[in-house]
TrEMBL record:
The keyword Cell wall biogenesis/degradation does not apply. This is BPSS1780 family membrane protein. The chain crosses the membrane at residues 29-59, 65-88, 100-120, 149-169, 200-221, 233-254. InterPro entries: BPSS1780-like. It comes from Roseateles koreensis. Keywords: Membrane, Transmembrane, Transmembrane helix.
Amino acid sequence: MILHLQTVPARNGMLWLRHGFKVFQRRPVALAGLFSLFLFASMLMLMVPGAGVLLLLMALPQLSLGFMLATHLVLQNQTPSAVVFLLPFKLTPKRRNTQLLLGACYALLTLGISLLAGWVDGGSMDQLQQLMADGAAPEKLAEAAANPALLWGAITRLVLAALISIPFWHAPALVHWGGQGLMQALFSSTIALWRNRGAFAYNALLWGTLVMSLGLSASLLAEVLGLAQILPVLGMACGLLLSTVFYASLYFTFIDCFMFGAPTELPDNKA
């Protein structure tokens, strides 16, 4: 497939989000099931001694590509299944190996960020997590959270994680649909996000606003109704919904930047 790098207006950031919700509305059970399946698989991978975390990190780029393929199927009035996560490895040996190499690079870079951030915060994040796991007193938790090194470690994690997400954002799709090699895919993805930084920044702002608004609304509703005990359940449900919609929207960011552009309106669902 021939891909052409395109520049899109910033307002398309809203278009991607809106289309993600529309696609989810067409196949909510199937799409939510795919994300739930990945979460279950993630727990199984974490149970693998030693290599569990590495396997999970390697799988994350394929999660985004799998959902792009799932969204494409929904637009074709088909119901996606778990097969979408295996399709990228069935094209050619070269593309399969490149996808595996992408996953390995992403995992190693993420582990490197974790080690660097741990050095910056002096282990304060691990200490806070251990105190929370042990059910420590609120005073001890507040003291650990007030450590200035914890803030710098968190900033390091967030900034570096955002930076490495840029070359990997479209890379799996560029390998799958464009047949690009490792370095070409990483470079093309970086250029696409930079050229369309307005749309991606607007999209990120919308997602951040939506997450905070939904979280605040759920908290207020639970407080008013006196159902604070179900707040964790509401949080999990909202998290599953928004995560699924987010991944369903990734397909539109790709076709907008590299293919024929995201449509203003989706075709009617005939299924």
